[in-house]
Amino acid sequence: MKHTPLNRAARLALTALLSAMVLAPLGAQAQTWEYKSYKRSLGGQYNKEDVVKAANAIQAIANAGMGALYVPGSDKGTGWEPTRAKPAIFTDKEKVGKLAMAFNKEANEMAKIAATGDAAAVGAQLGKLGDTCKACHDDYKAKK
């Protein structure tokens, strides 16, 4: 297939649509569940297999092109609940991009560290990963 601008646009639109259909309902819920899996393993008996699964799930979400979910009109979204995305997430592209890259970097690092089985290193990385989530949510996610 020749990669014309129209074909590229169609592929991007399809990617955005599929991402929205698959990740939007699961993204935040999956990330919350995975974060709790880390905390449970770090607060009690460490289970490397569970931590690796959680790390890989968050890494997949981080690398799935989450930015494609924030397209014009998605600020009016009412998936399983009304969106809590603040309007600025749709306009502060440079800052949001930097925050997304930080999340991506720390999620990838978490997957590497989780594979080692080093509970102390996972705990330290969980703090860094959580900080990237908090940085974005503080500025771009409305409180309930």
Outline the structure in words.
By secondary structure, the protein is an all-alpha fold. The protein has one domain (5-140): Cytochrome c/b562 (Four Helix Bundle (Hemerythrin (Met), subunit A), Up-down Bundle), CATH 1.20.120. It has 4 helices and no strands. It has helices spanning 5-43, 48-62, 93-116, 119-140. α1 runs antiparallel to α2 (48-62) and α1 (5-43) packs across α4. The radius of gyration is 17 Å and the shape is elongated.
Number of strands: 0
Biggest sheet features: none
* CATH topology (fold) name: Four Helix Bundle (Hemerythrin (Met), subunit A)
CATH class: Mainly Alpha
Number of separate domains? 1
| Unreliable stretches covering 5 or more consecutive residues | 1-30
Specify Rg, calculated over alpha carbons.
17 Å
Using the alpha-carbon principal axes, give the shape: elongated
CATH homologous superfamily? Answer: Cytochrome c/b562
Helix content: 55-70%
H/I helix tally: 4
User: Mind telling me which CATH architecture this is?
Assistant: Up-down Bundle
Structural class call reads mainly alpha
Could you give the distance between the termini? 47 Å
The overall pLDDT average reads 74
Query: In what range is the share of β-strand residues?
Result: under 5%
N-to-C SSE string, H for helix and E for strand: HHHH
